[in-house]
Amino acid sequence: MAKYIIEKSGPLHGEVEISGSKNAVLPIMAAALLAEGECEIMDVPALRDVDVMCKLLESIGSKVEEDYENNTVKIKTERIVEEEAPYELVQRMRASILTMGPLLAKTGHARVALPGGCPIGARPIDLHLKGFQALGAEIERGHGYVEAHAKKLIGAKIYLDFPSVGATENIMMAAGLAEGITIIENAAEEPEIVDLANFMNKMGAKVKGAGTDTIRIEGVPSLHGTKHAVIPDRIETGTFMLAAAITRGNVLIKNVVSDHVKPVIAKLIECGVVIEDTDEGIRVRGDLHPLVAADIKTMPYPGFPTDMQPLFMAFLSTVKGPSVVVETVFENRFMHVGELNRMSADIKIEGRSAVVPGERLLQGAQVICTDLRAGAAMVLAGFMADGTTELSEIYHLDRGYSLFSKKFRSLGANIQRVSE
Ligand code: UD1
Asked: 388 — phi, psi (to 5°)?
C-alpha cells in the first residue's frame, strides 16, 4: 500500500494550476447517458473517481474514450445494455448513484446498489427516490439494491427537505426527458449544479434557475451530443489556499473562479490572511500578519463548505486563539479529529461542534486518511508539524486530487509518495 511521507515544509511559494472539478465532472459524465450523440467533456481531472465513472458507463453500454494527456473524455451511448450500477462500483464511488436519474429517464428502468453508510455519515438517498416517485416512478428495494420503474416520467413539483446536491442533480437529469414541467424547490445551489444545468442545456435541455433554490426543468423528447469544459475545482482551490495559509506562504492559485470560494476567502481574511483576487488568479499570503482564530459553521452553498471543514480545522490548530467548528451538513464528519490529535492538536468534540484550542506546535506522527478531505487536512498538518508524518490509506486522495504531491512539491513542499 502506498503512503505519503511528509516533512516540515517552509512557507509554500510559487504558482499552482487548479484542475477541473471532481464534483462537477461526475454528474456531467452521468448526464452524457441522456444524449443520443457523442459528448466531449474537457478539463476532466485525472482522478480515480473519473476512472470508476468511465468503467460504470462502459458497463451500461457507453463507448468511452479517455484522453489523459488532453484531459478529455468522449462518451457515446448508442444502446443501453445494462440499466444498473452494481455494488462493486457504488461501493468504490458513491457518485455512481448519479446514473440512476439518466437511466430511468432514458429506459424507464434503473437498478442501483444502495450505497450504505460512509465514514462521514449514513448518507441516505431517500430524497433522490422521493423525487423519482414524484415524477411517477415506482420504487422497490431488495437484496441491497433499489429499483425504479416508470412507463413514462411526468413533470412534477418537488420540495427537497434538505438541499441535497446529489438529489438535485439526479432529479434534474431524470426530469430532462420527462413530459411537462418539473420544479425543484429548496434545490441545492452549488456551482456544480449550475455546471450540470449548463451542460444539459447545451444538449438541448430546458433547465432554468440553477444556482438558485428553485430549478425549473421543461422536459424535451430527446437530447443531443455536445462539447463542454468543466468548471475549476473549488475544493482543490480551497485546499491550496489553506496550504499557503498554514505554511505562512505566498502562492498564486490559477484557473479559479473566486466567487465559488467566497466563504473560504472571507474566513481566511478574518484570520489575518491576505487575499488578492487578480486577473491571473487568487494570491494567498499567510506571511504578512500574525494569524488568529475564527469560528466556522458548515452550511449548504453559499455557506462554508463541509468539504473544507477538515482542512480549515488543521489550519486553525496552528493559529493564535481558540475556535469552534460546527458541522451541520454531515452527522459524523469529525473522523479527522482523532488523527489531528495524534499530531497534538488537542481538539475536543461536543456533539456536532469541535473546540480547537489553537497555537499548537504540531508533531509528526503516523496517521491515516479517514476520507478524502480528511486526508488532505493531514497533509497540511504534516507541512507544519515537527518531524516526519507518515500518512497511509492515501487511495482516498487519489480519488479526488489530480497530481496531488507533484503540485505541492512544485510549491516547495516536502512530500513523497512511497510504496510499502
Ligand atoms: C456532494 C459532494 C460532496 C459534498 C456534499 C455536500 C459530489 C459527488 N459529492 O455529496 O463532496 O461533501 O455534496 O456539499 O458532488 N441527504 C439525505 N437524503 C438524501 C440525500 C442527502 O438525508 O437523499 C443528506 C446527507 O446524508 C447529508 C446531506 O443531506 O447529511 C448532504 O448530502 P448531499 O448534499 O446529498 O451530498 P452528496 O450529493 O452525497
From this structure: -100, 135
Is residue 374's pLDDT more than 70? yes
pLDDT tens readout for residues 35-63: 999 999 999 999 999 999 999 999 999 99
Tell which wins on pLDDT, 118 or 20. 20
- Taking the CA atoms of 241, 244, 246 and 248 in sequence, report the sign of the dihedral they define: negative
Residue with CA nearest ligand 1 atom 19? 125
Out of 39, 54, 118, 369, pick the active-site residue.
Answer: 118
Out of 212, 229, 246, a domain closes at 229
Annotated active-site residue 118? The verdict is: yes
The answer to whether residues 197 and 107 belong to one domain is yes
Angle at 255 between CA 45 and CA 242, to 5 degrees: 90
pLDDT tens readout for residues 167-191 = 999 999 999 999 999 999 999 999 9
Question: Which residue's C-alpha comes closest to atom 37 of ligand 1?
Answer: 166
Domain that holds residue 77: 22-229
- Here the CATH number for the domain that contains residue 116 is 3.65.10.10
**Number of structural domains, the chain?**
2
Ligand 1: residues with CB < 6 A are 23, 26, 95, 121, 123-128, 162, 164-167, 188, 192, 306-307, 329-330
Among 47, 132, 165, 332, name the best residue to mutate to test ligand 1's pocket (greatest count of ligand atoms within 8 A of Cβ): 165
Question: Does residue 135 share a domain with residue 264?
Answer: no
Spatial CB neighbours of 187, under 8 Å, sequence gap ≥ 6: 160, 163, 168, 193, 209, 210, 212, 213, 214, 215
For residues 378 and 250, membership in a common domain is answered with yes
